[in-house]
Amino acid sequence: MALRGAxxxxxxxxxxxxxxxxxxxxxxxxxxxxxxxxxxxxxxxxYRKHGEPLDVIHLENVKLSQLGDFDIRIQMxxxxxxxxxxxxxxxxxxxxxxxxxxxxxxxxxxxxxxxSKVTNMKPGxxxxxxxxxxGTWRIEAVGNMNTFIKVPKxxxxxxxxxxxxxPCTAYRMLYDFESLxxxxxxxxxxxxxxxxxxxxxxAKAMSLKTINxxxxxxxxxxxxxxxxxxxxxxxxTEEALRKPExxxxxxxxxxxxxxxxxxxxxxxxxxxxxxxxxxxxxTYGGMAKKPVTVPVSTLIFKDVKxxxxxxxxxxREHGQDLLQEMISQLCGFIQEGKLEAPICTEVxxxxxxxxxxxxxxxYTSSKQILIM
Length: 372
Hints:
The chain is of the alpha/beta class. The protein has 14 helices and 16 strands. It has helices at residues 2-20, 25-38, 53-56, 83-90, 157-161, 166-176, 194-205, 220-230, 238-241, 246-249, 265-274, 296-302, 311-335, 352-359, and strands spanning 41-47, 57-63, 71-80, 101-102, 108-114, 126-129, 140-144, 148-151, 185-188, 209-214, 234-237, 258-261, 280-283, 305-308, 344-348, 367-371. The strands form three sheets. Strands 3, 5, 6, 7, 8, 15 and 16 form a seven-stranded mixed β-sheet that branches. A six-stranded parallel β-sheet has the order 11-10-9-12-13-14, sandwiched between helices. Helix 12 links the parallel strand 13 and strand 14. The longest helix has 25 residues, at 311-335. It is globular and about 65 Å long. Mean pLDDT is 90; it is low at 1-30.
């Protein structure tokens, strides 16, 4: 406690000096990171037990690992709050870190220092974690160079911060389950989610048509307009998905060969009914927390394929080279203006409670991004 108190007092004195010099808040954080990192400590959002995020996570001063020969030390720049992060804190996700744990699995950081045997990275480079478990809700981190992937510094910060989970999920589902050709259609629910927004844009880059299903809500028209501005061809509600009028849609667009399910329950069942014969439905999420029910007639007479996808497992099975290839392709889309970050709200790191509250509020379409 004495050490923590001394660190807090020193932090306060440094803040006063920076304020006196006219520094902005982002500059304070960078200066604090450098100062704290030099002492081997940094601020992080830590949870010591499972439960509701606002109840269990707290801002703490933690010790940084020592820099090894093959390690890099990074300053985190931005990190999103994803549904899987919430599930981890609640203790309901399939993989859980040992407690105490630092929240967050995605984000982008700038390299501050490299170990003596690191040759392919240098201070100033931007990197993203290649897998889960780093704990990105922190000011600094130290880790093996092979657990990070470089990304171009010229891409927008929010694109880099949200690159390694949702766009990768969308990319793999669009490329790996059906041999789609220009003009084919894809149907998806949870179209306003991070994966949904990435799917819309990547599918457009592939010259595919998208049928995008969202829940009815007060701002339905505004949301529909935003998705169409991203490249969505059709935006419909869950209720419309169940109506006979869907037949009219398939007079102007081919029935989808691929359905992407992030909801489960009735939504998934209804999408199954609209699949082309021999098509595939891929489940990557279950926000409704209800099972996917498959009509027997759909299996017998349409011979649909029922698949699942988890990007964490894909990364484990396919290794760093294929992951780097995919990240490079996605960064190319970003630089060509074909892929943007999802709808985001930037929140200062110290205001993490505001971001967590917004993330767990129903009908929130904006992804919360912690800015360090």
